[in-house]
Design a protein that fits this description.
Layout: H1 7-13, H2 20-44, H3 52-60, H4 65-99, H5 111-125, H6 131-152, H7 160-184, H8 186-192, H9 205-224, H10 226-233, H11 236-241, H12 246-268, H13 274-286, H14 290-315, H15 323-346
C-alpha cells in the first residue's frame, strides 16, 4: 500500500525556486543574445537587397562591390548603432534616477536639442566640418541646456513636472532656431538635412574612432554610479543617512549623461525616445535597482535602435526612413501610454 509522504518532506525534496539574482543574470544573458541577433540582422538586411551568400562573401572574402556595401557601410553602421544605442539608454536611465523623474531622457529634458543647436551653429557660423569639432560643440550645448533646465526646474527643489515643462519649452525654442537656420542658409541645409532627424547613414569608421573614447568614459562613469544613484532615488535624507555624497553624485551623473548624449548626438544627430522607453521596459522586470537597470539598458537600447534602423531600411525600399523618424513614430504612442498609466495609478 502506497502512503503519501508528509507535506514537509515533499517540500524538502522539491527543487528550490531560482533566486531573483539568477533570473536577472539569465535575462541579461538572453538580452545579449538578442542584441547579437539584431546586429546580425543589421548587417544582413539593407535598402539594397543582398542574399545571405553575398553578405557572407562581402564580409569575409569580397573586396569589391559586396565588400564595400557590407563592410564599409553596413558593418560600420551597425557598430555605431551599438555604441550610440548604449549611450542613449544609459544616459536616459541615469537622468531618470538623478531627477527621480520616470519620464526623463536626454530628448525630453532638452539635452539633445542643446547639442543639436550647438552643432548647427558650429557648422553654419564657424565653418566646423569635422566630427572632432562637432563633439566639443555638442558637449557645450548639452551642458548649457542641462544646467538651464535644472535651474528653471527649481534646482534642488525640482519636480518631475517642472523639469519636463522646462525641457519641453527649451527644446521647442532650440528646434525653432534649427529650422530658421536651415531655411535661411541653403548650404547648411544640405549638410544638416539628414543629421537633424537622427541618422546612421553617414556612419564611418572615422566617426566610430572619434566618439569611442567619449562614449567609453561616459559608460564607465555611469555604471560606476549605480550604487550611489540607488541612494539618491530614495530621497535626499535617506541618501545622506546612507553616506552618499549628494552633490558629487549629482555632478558626476549629469557629467555622464552629458558626455554620453553629447557624443551620441554629435555622431548621429538627435535620436529621441530611446533613453525613455528602454529604462521603463527594463525596470518592469528588474525592479528599481540601478545595478541591474544600467547593464540591461546598455544591452537593450542598441536592440531598439538597430531594430528601428533595420525597419527604416525595409519599409521604404529602395529609399530609407531615418532611424530618428522611426524611433519618434514608436516613441510617441509609448510616451502617451506611460503618462496615462502613471496618471491612472495616481488616481
Amino acid at each position: 500500500m502506497l502512503v503519501d509522504s508528509p507535506p514537509e518532506q515533499r517540500a524538502d525534496t522539491a527543487p528550490a525556486p531560482p533566486t531573483r539574482q539568477a533570473v536577472r543574470a539569465l535575462g541579461l544573458l538572453l538580452s545579449f543574445v538578442l542584441l547579437v541577433l539584431v546586429a546580425l540582422a543589421s548587417i544582413a538586411i539593407g535598402a539594397k537587397g543582398l542574399s545571405l551568400d553575398q553578405v557572407w562573401h562581402g564580409l569575409f572574402h569580397e573586396t569589391g562591390t559586396y565588400g564595400d556595401v557590407v563592410v564599409d557601410e553596413r558593418l560600420s553602421r551597425t557598430v555605431l548603432g551599438l555604441l550610440v544605442g548604449a549611450a542613449l539608454g544609459l544616459s536616459g536611465a541615469v537622468l531618470q534616477a538623478l531627477t527621480r523623474n520616470p519620464l526623463a531622457d536626454p530628448g525630453l529634458l532638452g539635452i539633445n536639442a542643446g547639442a543639436s543647436a550647438a552643432v548647427v551653429t558650429a557648422i553654419t557660423y564657424f565653418g566646423v566640418t569635422s566630427l572632432t569639432g562637432y563633439v566639443w560643440f555638442a558637449f557645450l550645448g548639452a551642458s548649457a541646456v542641462g544646467a538651464l533646465v535644472w535651474f528653471l526646474g527649481g534646482s534642488r527643489g525640482a519636480t518631475p513636472v517642472r523639469l519636463a515643462l522646462a525641457g519641453t519649452a527649451i527644446s521647442a525654442a532650440l528646434y525653432g532656431y534649427l529650422q530658421a537656420v536651415m531655411i535661411t542658409d541653403g548650404a547648411a541645409l544640405g549638410k544638416m538635412r539628414f543629421w537633424t532627424v537622427g541618422s546612421l547613414v553617414s556612419a564611418g569608421y572615422s566617426t566610430i574612432t572619434q566618439v569611442l573614447p567619449f562614449l567609453a568614459v561616459g559608460t564607465v562613469l555611469a555604471l560606476a554610479l549605480a550604487r550611489p544613484l540607488n541612494a539618491v532615488e530614495m530621497g535626499d535624507d535617506t541618501a545622506r543617512a546612507l553616506g552618499a555624497n549628494l552633490d558629487r553624485t549629482r555632478a558626476l551623473a549629469m557629467l555622464a549623461a552629458v558626455v554620453l548624449s553629447g557624443a551620441a548626438t554629435a555622431a548621429c544627430g538627435p535620436i529621441v525616445f530611446v533613453g525613455l522607453m528602454v529604462p521603463h521596459v527594463v525596470r518592469s522586470f528588474t525592479g528599481p535597482d540601478l545595478r541591474w537597470i544600467l547593464p540591461y539598458a546598455t544591452v537593450l537600447a542598441p536592440v531598439l535602435l538597430l531594430g528601428a534602423d533595420v525597419a527604416g531600411r525595409v519599409v521604404a525600399r529602395p529609399a530609407e526612413l531615418q532611424v530618428g523618424i522611426v524611433t519618434a513614430i514608436i516613441g510617441g504612442p509609448v510616451f502617451i501610454f506611460l503618462v496615462r498609466r502613471r496618471r491612472t495609478a495616481q488616481l
